[in-house]
C-alpha cells in the first residue's frame, strides 16, 4: 500500500474525507470555470494545477492523502480541459486571473498551490502574478522552461518530439495531436504507455493498482473531452518563452522530483531550484513520475500545510 493512495474505508478520520465534489462558476468574460474538490472540506486550501494531458479528475490520486492531512484540495480545469470553457487568450499569462476569480468566489484570501508535471508552470505563473495571495508552492515532477536544448535533453521520445514539432512545425504538431486525441478517447492506456517510454519500475508498481490507473486515465480522457485544440495550444505555451521569469516567483517553492522520472528529467528541478529566489529541492531516489505523488503525497501535504506565511 502506498502512502498517498489509500482506499476510502481505511483508517480513522475517513468520515472527514471528501471523495470529490464538482462545482463551477461563470467568469467575467462569460467562460465557465469548472473545478472539483477533494480531501478535507474545512482544511487548508490548496489549488491543484493538473498535469498534461489531464484535467481536474487527476487530483483524485491525492484525495485520501489530502483528507488525512487536513488539506482542502481544489482542482480547477484549465481552459478547454474537462468541463471548463475554452479560451483564445494566452494561457500562462491569463491563468492567474482565473485562479484569482476562483479564490474570490470561494471567499479565500490566500491559498497554497500544487503543480503536478505540466501543471508546474501554471502554479509558478500564479506565484509570480498573485503575490502574497499564494503562500507557498509545491511542484511534483514539474516541467521547467523548454527554451534551451539542455532542458529538452533526457525527456521521453514522445515528449521531445512534441516540443520540437510545437516549436518548428506547428501544423504537423496540430495534426499529430488531433490523432492523439482520438486515441486518448478510445484507448488512453496506450497513450500512457507512450508517455512513459518503457516505464520506470516505481511507475509500473503504482500503475498496477486498478483504481489509481483508472483515475489517471480518466484525467487524460477529460483532457480531450472538448477536442484536441486546448492540448495543442497548451503544448505551444510550454514550448514558447514563458510570460514570466522564475525570478518573478517570490514565494517559497519546494520541488519534489523522482530521480527515475521518465517523463520530466530531474534536471528540470535542478535548474528551477537554482533560479527561483526561495526554493528547495527534494530529489527522491527510486521514485518516478506517478509514483512520486502516490508514495509521498502525505509528506508533501504535511510540508505544504506547515509553511508559515510571510508577513506582507
Amino acid at each position: 500500500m502506498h502512502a498517498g493512495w489509500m482506499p476510502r474505508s481505511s483508517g480513522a478520520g475517513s468520515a472527514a474525507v471528501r471523495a470529490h465534489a464538482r462545482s463551477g462558476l461563470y467568469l467575467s468574460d462569460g467562460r465557465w470555470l469548472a473545478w472539483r474538490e477533494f480531501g478535507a472540506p474545512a482544511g487548508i486550501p490548496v489549488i491543484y494545477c493538473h498535469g498534461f494531458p489531464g484535467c481536474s479528475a487527476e487530483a483524485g490520486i491525492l484525495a485520501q492523502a489530502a483528507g488525512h492531512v487536513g488539506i482542502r484540495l481544489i482542482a480547477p480545469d484549465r481552459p478547454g480541459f474537462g468541463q471548463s470553457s475554452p479560451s483564445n487568450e494566452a494561457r500562462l499569462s491569463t491563468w492567474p486571473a482565473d485562479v484569482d476569480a476562483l479564490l474570490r468566489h470561494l471567499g479565500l484570501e490566500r491559498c497554497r498551490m500544487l503543480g503536478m508535471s505540466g501543471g508546474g508552470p501554471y502554479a509558478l505563473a500564479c506565484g509570480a502574478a498573485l503575490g502574497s495571495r499564494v503562500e507557498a508552492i509545491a511542484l511534483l515532477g514539474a516541467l521547467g522552461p523548454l527554451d534551451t536544448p539542455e532542458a529538452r535533453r533526457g525527456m521521453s521520445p514522445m515528449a521531445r518530439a512534441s516540443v520540437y514539432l510545437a516549436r518548428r512545425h506547428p501544423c504537423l504538431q496540430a495534426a499529430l495531436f488531433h490523432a492523439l486525441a482520438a486515441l486518448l478517447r478510445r484507448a488512453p492506456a496506450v497513450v500512457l504507455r507512450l508517455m512513459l517510454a518503457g516505464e520506470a519500475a516505481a511507475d509500473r508498481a503504482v500503475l498496477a493498482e486498478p483504481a489509481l490507473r483508472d483515475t489517471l486515465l480518466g484525467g487524460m480522457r477529460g483532457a480531450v473531452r472538448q477536442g484536441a485544440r486546448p492540448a495543442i495550444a497548451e503544448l505551444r505555451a510550454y514550448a514558447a518563452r514563458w510570460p514570466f521569469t522564475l525570478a518573478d516567483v517570490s514565494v517559497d517553492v519546494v520541488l519534489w522530483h523522482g530521480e527515475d522520472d521518465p517523463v520530466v528529467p530531474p534536471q528540470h528541478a535542478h535548474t528551477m531550484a537554482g533560479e527561483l529566489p526561495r526554493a528547495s529541492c527534494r530529489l527522491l531516489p527510486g521514485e518516478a513520475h506517478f509514483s512520486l505523488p502516490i508514495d509521498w503525497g502525505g509528506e508533501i501535504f504535511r510540508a505544504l500545510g506547515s509553511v508559515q506565511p510571510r508577513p506582507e
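Confidence is low (pLDDT under 50) at residues 1-17. Residues 170-186 form the longest helix (17 residues).
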